[in-house]
Design brief:
Blueprint: H1 3-8, H2 10-24, H3 29-36, E1 40-49, E2 55-66, E3 72-79, H4 84-101, E4 107-113, H5 121-135, E5 144-148, H6 154-168, H7 192-208, E6 216-220, H8 224-235, E7 240-246, E8 249-252, H9 259-269, E9 279-281, E10 293-296, E11 315-317, H10 326-334, E12 338-340, H11 342-345, H12 348-362, H13 368-393, H14 397-416
Bound molecules: nicotinamide-adenine-dinucleotide.
Length: 420
């Protein structure tokens, strides 16, 4: 299989990342095999009554990748391109993300093949409730905790929480995170991924001697992660956001702009394009703008072997999951671009999800300030551990993050043993 084809299958990319780190760790071949496969994979085909009275059968998955460290944890994705291999890859990444962030969870992921943009709210509710029922045999606060991902949100989580609770006969808030506040959500969860990303970029800036005050920033994607990151790095770190984009295209202004004003503009017009005082660029061009910090916060596989030589940023902070291909990683490492890998850079989201679950189990809720402080502590420590590994082993930050994460999971196996 050619290199470029290899990059297309996310599960093969995920397995390759494990092999790379496993080689550096001199892992026993048997243990490497254990880490390359999911523990449990559930496929469900289930009927849903559509609004016009017809019955449609949907296919969904829940992949429980690894629970050596703690209960399974991971989001649910609704998308027409969901596949078992994609869910496996995302579940594998969740395992390493939780381990590198120092959270006592394993990794899982789920998905339903559907086009949520073409479904009514009541169809989405019936599909969500039936999917939750189908996978209810393997999920629960002590087993596997769900969360939102692409095209699922706090409403989806509320329906899942209610479905599981109705079947149990009492409220079970701890089965999902990312819930609305009134049914046990956590303050700060909405912006947690972006806030964590800002802390990671701040730590990276210290390492490369970059003052974030006045540093220039480009953000690809202006959704939950991208917009909140642009806002926080502008408002709290004093950086100059000079480029942003959404699915329709991007904008650039050397003078910089206030992301909050761009957000209001996008709410009115449906896109960031055309924001006064900026010029238009494509989503490919935005990655190559002359900036200090580049934050890909939209899709997988956007930084490739082809455009990596033209990236001008000193720091790449991966808000999105999997935006850089393994081939591009090698190019950026040789060019001294500091890439903060996804499993570390966007780990703030699952960290505050963990905080939400802890608050649910203890039935005691924290202030926003407490959440932010604990998140900062977790991000700074995780960054430090990865940086030290990168320094010690002379590998890029992604390999360092995998080495840190895989070492922890292997250590868990050493204590627990291979059953029986
Ligand atoms: P979102 O749906 O809120 O936003 C996605 C943004 O990307 C939108 O602005 C959309 O217009 C834009 N986009 C879509 N196609 C694009 C394209 N071709 N080029 C440029 N922009 C495009 O999603 P989100 O929650 O912000 O997630 C973004 C990424 O971050 C995903 O990879 C997701 O897995 C990852 N992530 C999210 C969280 C979280 O807490 N939300 C946590 C960890 C990782």
């Amino acid at each position: 299989m050619s290199k470029s084809k290899e990059s297309l299958n996310p599960f093969e990319v995920a397995q390759k990342q494990i092999e790379r780190a496993g080689t550096k760790l001199n892992l026993d071949p048997g243990m490497l095999e254990v880490l390359k496969y999911a523990r449990r994979e559930l496929t469900v085909h289930f009927p849903v009554k559509m609004d016009d009275g017809r019955v449609r059968v949907f296919t969904g998955y829940r992949v429980q990748y690894n629970d050596a460290i703690g209960p399974f944890k991971g989001g649910i994705r609704y998308h027409w391109k969901v596949s078992l291999d994609e869910v496996r890859a995302l579940a594998s990444w969740m395992t390493w993300k939780c381990a590198v962030m120092g959270i006592p969870y394993g990794g899982a992921k789920g998905g339903v093949i559907c086009n949520p943009k073409e479904m009514s709210r009541s169809e989405l509710e019936r599909m969500t409730r039936r999917y939750a029922s189908e996978i209810s045999i393997i999920i629960g606060p002590e087993k596997d905790i769900l969360a939102p991902d692409v095209y699922t949100d706090s409403q989806t989580m509320a329906w899942i929480m209610d479905t599981i609770s109705m079947n149990k006969g009492f409220a079970v808030p701890g089965v999902v995170t990312g819930k609305p506040l009134v049914i046990g959500g956590s303050l700060g969860r909405d912006e947690a991924t972006s806030r964590g990303l800002m802390y990671a970029v701040r730590e990276a800036a210290k390492k490369v001697g970059l003052d974030l005050k006045g540093a220039t920033v480009a953000v690809q994607g202006f959704g939950n992660v991208g917009y909140n990151f642009a806002r926080l790095i502008h408002d709290e770190a004093g950086a100059k956001v000079v480029a942003a984009s959404d699915s329709k295209g991007g904008i650039v202004s050397e003078k910089g702009f206030d992301p909050k004003e761009v957000f209001v503009f996008k709410e009115k017009t449906g896109t960031v394009m055309g924001f006064p005082g900026t010029r238009k660029v494509t989503n490919e061009e935005i990655l190559e703008v002359e900036v200090d910090v580049l934050a890909p916060c939209a899709l997988e596989g956007v930084i490739t072997e082809a455009n990596a030589p033209r990236i001008k940023a000193k720091i790449v902070g991966e808000g999105a999951n999997g935006p850089t291909t393994p081939e591009a990683d090698d190019v950026l490492f040789k060019r001294d671009v500091l890439v903060i890998p996804d499993i570390l850079a966007n780990g703030g989201g699952v960290t505050v999800s963990y905080f939400e679950w802890v608050q649910n189990l203890s039935e005691f809720f924290w202030t926003k300030q407490e959440v932010d402080q604990k998140l900062e502590h977790q991000m700074v420590n995780a960054f430090k551990a990865v940086w030290e590994m990168h320094d010690a082993k002379k590998v890029d930050m992604r390999q360092a993050a995998y080495i840190v994460a895989i070492s922890k999971v292997v250590d868990a196996y050493k204590w627990r043993g291979i059953y029986p």
